[in-house]
Design brief:
Helix content is 37%, strand content 22%. It has one domain. A four-stranded mixed sheet has the order 1-2-3-4. By secondary structure, the chain is an alpha/beta fold. The longest helix is centred in the middle third of the chain and has 20 residues, at 35-54. A hairpin with a 6-residue loop joins β1 (11-14) and β2 (21-27). α1 packs parallel to α3. It is globular, with a radius of gyration of 14 Å.
Length: 110
């Protein structure tokens, strides 16, 4: 599962330390080639996650989600490009305005 599978929730986990529900988007794509297309993929994936949350489907798929803070965790293989950082900042504002949280994490090399 990844950012290019727009109608799929990649991972849903409950953080044991905070009790938050993390909905993770896994992104393996680089930002250097087809950056515009990559941003469209990310926007579509974020919209799918918001539909999943706001429609209440999250409560059907993850019954323990009730009364938990929801964090959309964008997990990237590559650091955000400058253009992606601008997009991400705007998306974060919109998502936080809807009552959720958006964060970016860089995958750890093994």
């Amino acid at each position: 599962m990844s950012v290019d599978q727009r109608d799929t929730i990649d991972f849903a986990t409950i953080d044991e330390a905070t009790g938050d529900l993390w909905l993770t988007i896994s992104d393996h794509l680089p930002w250097d080639e087809n950056e515009e297309n990559h941003l469209v993929l990310l926007q579509n994936k974020l919209n799918a996650y918001l539909r999943f949350i706001e429609s209440g489907e999250v409560l059907k798929k993850v019954p323990d989600a009730r009364r938990r803070r929801i964090i959309i965790n964008f997990l990237g293989k590559f650091p955000l490009s400058q253009k992606a950082e601008v997009f991400f900042s705007k998306a974060r504002g919109a998502i936080e305005g809807a009552g959720f949280r958006l964060q970016f994490s860089l995958m750890q090399a093994r």
